[in-house]
Amino acid sequence: MLPPPLLRRPLAAAARLALPLAGPQACLATGPRQNNGVFYEIRTYDIKPAKMKEFMEMVNKYLHFRTAHSELVGFWYSELGAMNKVLHIWKYDNFSHRTTVRHALANDKDWQGKFISAALPLMEKQQNEVAYLVPWCQLGKPPKEGGVYEWVTFQMKPGGPALWGEAFRAAINAHINTGYTTLIGAFHTEYGLLNRVHVLWWNESPDHRAAGRHSAHEDARVVAAGKT
After folding, report:
1. Residue 196 sits in a domain of what CATH number?
2. Is the whole-model pTM more than 0.85?
3. Total domains present in the chain
4. What Pfam families does the database record attribute to this sequence (predicted)?
5. pLDDT digits over 23-74, tens only?
6. In angstroms, rounded to a whole number, what is the distance separating the alpha carbons of residues 186 and 178?
7. How many Å apart are CA 74 and CA 71, to the nearest integer?
C-alpha cells in the first residue's frame, strides 16, 4: 500500500528559508547514486497555524534575497495530507558550494534582518534532508503553469538503489506511461532520515489526479509493476 501523499501547491514566488544549522544530527547512507557532486537539500518547516498567512506573505515579499545566493528548485505549501507545512528544495553543486552559500546567507543583512528575524517566531519546527536524484532520473519541469504537486515518501529497505532501484523504477514508469501525471523528480536521502525516497509529481488538478490514479490502478502495467 502506498503511503498517504501530500498534496501541495506552489507559491506564486518561491521562497527559501536558509538558516545556519547548529550541529545537525546526520547519518550517512550507502548505495549507488549519481556520479557528480550535485545534491538537493529538502527543507520542511512546520508553521504555527495562526501565522501561516503572515509567513506566506513574507516569503513572497523577501524570496529574492535568498534566491540571489543559490538555485531554488521549488517551494510549496501543503493542502492535503499535512497542514501548515511548507517544503522547499535547493540545488547545490557540492558540499563546498553549500558551505559557501550558508556563509553568505549568514552575512546577508537584508535576508537576516528582513526575513529570518521575523520568520523564526512563526515556525514550530524545521527539518532538512540531503538527497540525490535516483540514478535513472533527471529533474523535470511541469508541462505548464499552475496545477498541483504531489509529494510521496516511501520508506525503503536499507541498501540503496542497488537493492530496490529496478523494481521501484518499474513502478514509477508504469504510472508515467498511463499519462495522467508528470514526474518532476525522485530523490533518495543521504543525510537525515535514511532509506527514504521522495517522489514529486505534477498534476493538472486534484480531480484530474484522482481520476487518473483510479484509472491507473486498473491498468495491467501498473498492477504488474506493483507486484515486483
Report:
1. 3.30.70.100
2. no
3. 1
4. NIPSNAP (PF07978)
5. 222 333 334 455 679 999 999 999 999 999 999 999 999 999 999 999 999 9
6. 18
7. 9
